[in-house]
Amino acid sequence: MKRSFASDNNAPVHPDIMQAIINANNDDFVSYGDDPYTLKAKNIFNKKFGVDVEVFFVCTGTGANVSAISHLIKPWQTVIAASTAHIHHDECGAPEKYTGSKLHTVNSLDGKLTVSQLKPFLHSVGFEHHAQPGIISITQSTELGMVYTPEEIEEIARFANQNDMYLHLDGARIANALTSLNISLEEMITHTGVDVMSFGATKNGLLMGEAVVFLNPELARGFQYVRKQSMQLVSKMRYVSAQFIAHFQDDLWLKTATHANQMARLLAEKIRHIPQVKLTMPVQTNAVFAAIPKEIIQPLQEKYYFYVWNPEMGEVRWMTHFNTTEEDIEDFVKCIEDLLETSNK
Ligand SMILES: Cc1ncc(COP(=O)(O)O)c(C=O)c1O
């Protein structure tokens, strides 16, 4: 069986999560979230955020992003995101289709935005020929595996707030970011001024389940209709909620993310000693970006799944997850070394 370093989405479901689904499969319950599992899961979210948040469970990360953004934006406004953002690259134009709004991107090598990159957008404010800046969307951790510090998020949130914009955070890999900095959700999100976040969990062991979390409950008003119109209202919601309960039980979500990050660090340490392989990004979470000799890419892909990030540079992306083992890393590195040796002969 081919192991995967392609994506944390390639991981299986964590056994505790699968067990939670099985345990929930025991009786009739009211659908669409009016069930005890959903109530319990929502209460856990309040505890984790340290304030009463409004939580809406959804099926996919794209659904979370698109529904959250479309709820807060007007068609004549624009969403500003990094050029690497999932909402720009990997959502098939869904944010533009469902919001009817323009998406503006800012070039970013590490996936992060800074206030100085955002300031030029203020020139459009009040000019009726230009789409008006409405939402800043950042990804934590970024598509390049990098992490914003709470101070950096706070600075962007302050800028958004001062200029009548909302801050959306795509947290498809929020647990990887938290464990990378070893800080709490309160420190990273509640106290920094994020307005709404897409809370990811599928990449961290769930079968399927994400959440849209509004930090200011006022902003959530009417979102239940947007979720339904966005086709993200799950009828058998208790199975999503049961997964979230297990996700947070005994800090499983932090343990799985810590492990994924550790495996990425181990991989980076091991390949650092191979002269023909160059890390192209610092490793802060569970993604490793490296430039490798082009001739070994295809033979390596015959044995392992992974994506080529930049074909011209021979840059590849390797991702680890909760189920990646040290042995997987050792075998993978050995395979790279063997292929390099063969190609040098
Ligand atoms: C940064 C980011 N946001 C959101 C998503 C959610 O995507 P999906 O709609 O496939 O669940 C992903 C998945 O790859 C992602 O990497």
How would you describe what is shown here?
Helices cover 41% and strands 17% of the residues. The longest helix has 21 residues, at 252-272. With 345 residues, the protein is α/β, with parallel strands linked by helices. The chain has 14 helices and 13 strands. The structure holds pyridoxal-5'-phosphate.
How do the strands and helices of this protein lay out in sequence?
Elements lengths: L2 E2 L10 H10 L11 H14 L4 E5 L2 H12 L4 E6 L3 H4 L4 H6 L2 E5 L8 H4 L13 E8 L10 H13 L3 E6 L2 H8 L3 H6 L5 E4 L10 E5 L8 H7 L7 H12 L3 H21 L5 E2 L7 E5 L5 H7 E2 L1 E4 L4 E5 L6 H19 L1
Parallel strand pairs: 1-11, 3-4, 3-5, 5-6, 6-7
Antiparallel strand pairs: 2-8, 7-8, 9-10, 10-13, 12-13
Helix pairs in contact: 1-11, 2-11, 8-12, 12-14
List keywords for this structure.
2 domains; Aspartate Aminotransferase, domain 2; binds pyridoxal-5'-phosphate; 13 strands; 7-stranded mixed beta sheet; Aspartate Aminotransferase, domain 1; 345 residues; 4-stranded antiparallel beta sheet; single chain; globular; alpha/beta; 14 helices
Q: Describe the sheet with the most strands.
A: 7 strands, mixed
Fraction of residues in helices? Answer: 40-55%
Q: Using the coordinates above, name the CATH class of the largest domain.
A: Alpha Beta
The CATH topology name of the largest domain reads Aspartate Aminotransferase, domain 2
| Spans of at least 5 consecutive residues with low confidence | none
* End-to-end CA span: 29 Å
Shape: globular
The CATH homologous superfamily of the largest domain is called: Type I PLP-dependent aspartate aminotransferase-like (Major domain)
Helix count equals 14
Strand line-up in the sheet with most strands? 2-8-7-6-5-3-4
Strand content: 15-25%
Output mean pLDDT: 97
Radius of gyration (Å) = 21 Å
Q: Which ligands accompany this protein?
A: pyridoxal-5'-phosphate
CATH architecture annotation of the largest domain: 3-Layer(aba) Sandwich
Order of helices and strands: EHHEHEHHEHEHEHHEEHHHEEHEEEH
